[in-house]
Amino acid sequence: MPKVNGKDPVLVVIQLTGGLDFMNTLIPYTEGIYYDSRPTVGIAREVMLPINDTLAFHPDAARLKELFEAGNVAVVQGIGYENSSRSHFRGMDIWHTCEPLKISTEGWVARLIRELDPQSRDPLTCISFGRGLPRALAGAGVTATSVGDLDNYGLMTSVQIKEERDSDLDLFKRMYTPAIGAGLVMDYLAQTGRDVLKGADRLKEAPPKYATSVEWGTNPIAKSLRDVARVHTAGLGTRIFYTQHAGYDYHSHEPLNHGRLLGELSGAISDFLQDLRNHDAADEVTILVFTDFGRRMVDNGSGTDHGSGGGAYIIGTQVNGGLYAEYPSVLRKDWLNDEDLRPTIDFRGIYGTVIEQWMGVDPGPIVGGHYEQVRPYRQLSPV
Questions:
Q1: Are strands 10-17 and 240-246 parallel, antiparallel or unpaired?
Q2: How many CB atoms lie within 10 A of CB 17?
Q3: Which residues on neighbouring strands pair with residue 314, listed in sequence order?
Q4: How many CB atoms lie within 10 A of CB 291?
Q5: Contacts from 160-165 at CB under 8 Å and sequence distance 24+?
Q6: Is 75 helix (H, G, I), strand (E, B) or coil?
Q7: What distance, in Å, lies between the first and last C-alpha atoms of the chain?
Q8: What structural domains and CATH numbers belong to the chain?
Q9: How many CA atoms lie within 13 A of 10 on its CB side?
Q10: pLDDT at 382 over 50
Q11: How far, in whole angstroms, is CA 27 from its chain's centroid?
C-alpha cells in the first residue's frame, strides 16, 4: 500500500448529479461548430478563460482554473462507455456498479471498502455526507456510515441514529427493489446497518477539534466538503469520503444554473484544498469528480439534453495537472447518434487509475477488468 508522507492515501469522491455539461465547462473555443450548435447556451468567447490555444474554462470556473494552472487538476476528457445510457437512474447505476451490461448488486466503492477493511471492523472507513445511501457504497457485509449533518450526528441518541440509518436504508430499498428485485435488496439490507452506533462517539470528536481561517460558502457542496475537512483533520482514519452536488440536469435555464453550480463547485474545492493545506493535511488526499453523462452537442433553445462523452477531474496536491485522454471530436461526422460527443476513454479505467495508483489496490476485481488508465500522479513512496 503506498504512503504519502507516511500517511495512508485518502479518496474524496464528488458526484455531480444530473449530468454536467462538459462542453460548457471546458470549451473548444476555436471551433465554429460550438457556436453554431449552441446559440442559446454557448459562452461568449470574450468571457471564457483560455488555458491553451484551443480550450477555455467557463468563466464561473475561475477558481478551478487557478487550481489547474497551479498543477493540481487533471482533466479527464471524453470519459464514458460504449452505448451510454441516457437514463439518470440506469446511467448512475452503471457508474456506481461498473456494470454497463447487467444489473449488479454491489457498488465499486463498497468493493474498495472491502479491500481496505476486509473484516468490516471500522464503520468510519467510508463516510458519505448527505441523506441516503449511494448505490456505489452498497455491498453485502460492507459498512459505510451516512451522515446527514455532522454537527448534530454526534449529539443524536442511539435511537435517533438508528432511525436515520433506517430511513436511509428504506430509501435505498424503495429505489432499487424495482431494478434488482426484492430478494437481492433484502439480502443486502439484512447484512447492513450493523455497527451503526460505533462510529457516532468518534465522530463527536471532529467538530470541537476543528478551527479554520477559510471563509467557506454556505451551499450544499461547500458544507459537505467542510465536513470532510473536519473529519479528515481529526485523524479518525477514514479512507474514503463520498459527497454529492445536485442540480446538473439543466434541460432548461442552463446558462444561469450551470454558471451558479460551477461557481459553487469550484469555490468549494478550492476552499477545501486550502483548508487542508492550512492543517498540513492535503498531500494524502485526492479528489475524484464525476457525473452521470455529458450533454448533447446542440442546445434545445433553453438548455441541453442528456448525451455522452463527458469529463471527470482528479484533483490534489500530488496530481500532475493537465489534460488527459482526448477531447471528443466536435466534427459532425464523428458525433455519436448524430448528436452526442463520442467518449474517448472508459470510466472504469479512470476509477482504476485512482484505485491502483493512489489507493494501492488491484482495480480488476473492483471495476470488472483492467482498462486503459491515465498517469496523473507524482511518485508515491512505498510502505
A1: parallel
A2: 16
A3: 74, 288
A4: 26
A5: 161/196, 161/197, 161/200, 162/196, 162/197, 165/193, 165/196
A6: strand
A7: 6
A8: 10-367 (3.40.720)
A9: 28
A10: no
A11: 21
Model confidence over 338-360: pLDDT tens digits?
899 999 999 999 999 999 999 99
The 3-state DSSP class for residue 199 equals helix
Residue position matching grid coordinates 507524482: 378
- How far apart (Å, rounded) are the C-alpha atoms in residues 216 and 205? 21
pLDDT per position as a tens digit, 107-158: 999 999 999 999 888 989 999 998 777 889 888 778 888 887 787 665 455 5
Residue with the bigger pLDDT between 92 and 167: it is: 92
Q: Which cell is 216 given? A: 467557506
> Among 27-36, 90-99, 199-208, 255-264, which stretch is predicted with the lowest mean pLDDT?
199-208
3-state helix/strand/coil string of 346-363: EHHHHHHHHHHHHCCCCC
pTM, two decimals, is 0.91
Task: Tell me how long the chain is.
Answer: 383
Nearest Cα neighbor of 285 from 10, 8, 5, 4 is: 10
The amino acid at residue 3 is K
Distance CA 313, CA 289 (A): 5
Please report which confidence band the pLDDT of residue 38 belongs to, taking 50, 70 and 90 as the band edges.
very high
Strand-pair category, 310-315 with 49-50: unpaired
- In the chain, the amino acid numbered 315 is I
Average pLDDT over residues 369-378: 96
Q: For the CA atoms of the chain, what is the radius of gyration?
A: 20
Q: Which residue type does 278 have?
A: N
